[in-house]
Amino acid sequence: MKAIGFRVTGRVQGVGYRLFAAQMAKELQLCGHVRNERDGSVSGHAQGDDEGIERLIAALQRGPPSAIVMDVTVDRAEPAEVVIFEISG
Questions:
Q1: What whole-number distance in Å separates Cα of residue 44 and Cα of residue 54?
Q2: CB 85 within 8 A of CB 46
Q3: Which of 11, 18, 38, 76 is catalytic?
Q4: pLDDT tens-digit readout, 52-80
Q5: Over residues 28-56, mean pLDDT
Q6: Catalytic residue (choose from 36, 55, 62, 76)
Q7: Is 62 a catalytic residue?
Q8: Which of 28, 49, 39 has its CA nearest to residue 73?
């Protein structure tokens, strides 16, 4: 199992980015969460198989149609004990 932490900057709040990320993660059978940050970015944690993680990263880089993604930062993370992918804060 692979786990990542991610942060996405650009016009990513108020454009359905969290819902987009959660839907993609669920389609790819990943677990974790996504949330808005005070600085206007979106961050999250995802875990699952390598292919699913790589496909999620590619999706995060494009975002939903109304988003403007400037940067996606991805770091390795420790797997957490989660079984769903949820949207928080």
A1: 15
A2: yes
A3: 18
A4: 999 999 999 999 999 999 999 999 999 98
A5: 98
A6: 36
A7: no
A8: 39
Pairing mode, if any, of strands 68-76 and 85-88?
unpaired
Residue corresponding to tokens 């016009």: 11
Q: Is 36 a catalytic residue?
A: yes
Quickly tell me which residue has 């990263």 as its tokens.
57
Q: How confident is the model at residue 89 (pLDDT cuts 50, 70, 90)?
A: confident
Give the whole-angstrom CA distance, residue 5 versus residue 46. Answer: 7
pTM over 0.85: yes
Please state, in angstroms and rounded to a whole number, the distance separating the CA atoms of residues 40 and 22: 18
- Contact by Cβ (8 Å): 82, 5: no
Question: Exposed e or buried b for every residue in 3-27, given b needs 16+ CB within 10 A?
Answer: bbbbbbbbebbebebbebbbebbee
DSSP 39: T
